[in-house]
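Predict structure. Chain length: 209.
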Amino acid sequence: MKLTYKKGKQDKIHISVDGEYSFTVDEAYFLSLGIYNGKEIGIEELSELKENVNIRRAYNYAVSLLARRDHSERELKDKLSLKGYKEGAEEAVEKLKKGGYVDDSRFARLYVRELQTLKKYGKRRIEQELFRKGVDRDIIREVLDETEFDEDELVRLIERKYARYLGDEKGVKKTINALLRLGYSYSEIRDALRQISENTELDDEVFYE
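Prediction complete.
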């Protein structure tokens, strides 16, 4: 089989096999391949070349994703697969892990701070979100154990966002349900509500109906 190539837009090089288009690579990678017009190539060598090209594409796309924000290992693999780089995803992510660009422990710590600060999530909801991102349970446990959860933050959240609902039992239940969805426990919610106003009557049955 004979390889030929031609320059595309920007830094793209389009490679054909026996006159039919086969794949595209970036110019920097192309120069490292040693390909010239008319180069003869066997089936196994071509298969290996395509595999390496897939890994290269996956790697480049992964780098572009990481430039925007940190990702968990599984999250990155999923996005690569959805983009069409499933075959090269595993190898590309492993390469990024070795370079220190993908680290689930670092990602988890950053994500916890984000969920605490921006979403105002409680510990339970944060744990669910980390698991949804594919972070290993041992890493989740380690990161959450070292994370400080300020009890006063829940009080401030209720005062800022839910105080207007605390005038009657229906409003209290609405507040409790909203806070449960944010990942706070019944005991955390009860203690915070009682701290806000000792004049607020809170029957424990409200929490368990």
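Summary: The chain has three domains: 2-98, 106-145, 151-208.
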